[in-house]
Amino acid sequence: MKKALLVTTVSGFVPQFEMGNVKILQDMGYEVHYAANFHTPSYGNDNKRLDHTGIIQHQVDFVRSPYKVKENWKAYKQLKRVMHEGKYDLVHCHTPMGGVLARLAAHRTFTSPVIYTAHGFHFYQGAPKKNWLLYYPMEKFLSRYTFQQICINKEDYKIAKTKFQAAYVNYIPGVGIDLNKIDSVNINIQDKKKVLGLPENKKILLSVGELIKRKNHETVIKALALLNDSSIVYVICGQGELEGYLKNLCKELKVDEQVYFLGYREDILEIYRIADAFVFPSWQEGLPFALLEAMASGLPVICSDIRGNRDLVKDQEFVIKTNKPEEYCLAIRNIFGRDLKYSGVKEKNWLIAREFGKEKVEKIMRKIYERAIKA
Known about the structure:
The chain is an alpha/beta fold. Helices cover 42% and strands 18% of the residues. It has helices spanning 13-27, 69-86, 96-108, 129-142, 154-163, 179-183, 189-196, 217-227, 243-252, 268-274, 289-296, 325-336, 345-354, 358-374; strands at 2-10, 30-37, 56-59, 90-94, 114-118, 148-151, 168-171, 203-208, 232-237, 259-263, 277-280, 301-304, 319-320. The strands form two sheets. Strands 3-2-1-4-5-6-7 form a seven-stranded parallel β-sheet, with helices on both faces. The relative contact order is 0.11.
């Protein structure tokens, strides 16, 4: 049996975003292996979602930071051993450090072809200069070891297509959201609010994302304090290292009774249904999965003016240019100050999301895998 190796830095990435690709590879007769740091699961607290998937797991002590040289060297040697012993017919890598070390190890062990999906380069319009100085040269160099480069937003695709040396460069519309599953959600809104402990008579502003600096939840919390409107509650779904900081910030700003931290949720599609509006203030994204799901659920959206978001949101009134609390405060006031069914927003967002469904993405990915097999 032919063998494919998936590589990501943290272990929750494949069950969260890549099971469509796993199924394609298994349907094509591949035994799928997965190298990641299983001691640092993301999108949940454990690795149980990998149970009964048929995926063979390999522990590699990846770290996210490129500056931890000793740890990265250890992970590189571990990954090289996995590739040497596994003799893989295909490598598909994701995440920045997973992509770096996988391509270096594959080159060293003569493992090919290598596919790399960039879920958002760390260099982008408006990125810190140090990102361009470190990540751009690194990605450009590694592109020579890349058979297939995949980008999920138009800005990254333009750079990779014109500046890099991968044999093939393709744009795909994200990792693919399950439109049928989203459309089939049918719940009693008031009952769901009771289960979650949310007030039944308040307007719900929702964010979904890890509690980390990049997701920028604190700006919305500050905006909520400026808004001074007790009829609105802010619900955050996600977990992360900033949970304590954000809860303390809520107390300091006296909005702790308006902000609900629900943690990582497996019922997120139902939570979209009880929300009245979605806010996505992130500083950096590739193509945001949560934003796409919110739009497919028919929610009006407030978001930051960044790469990825620009590919999705066309209503410029609610695209925040400076990411300041004052701007979010005004946008929240405006979006709740009118009928939320105004101007067909549900239908408009729903139609945009149609272009990013998993069936369309998987059709493209199957062709990419078929080309790689023939390489």
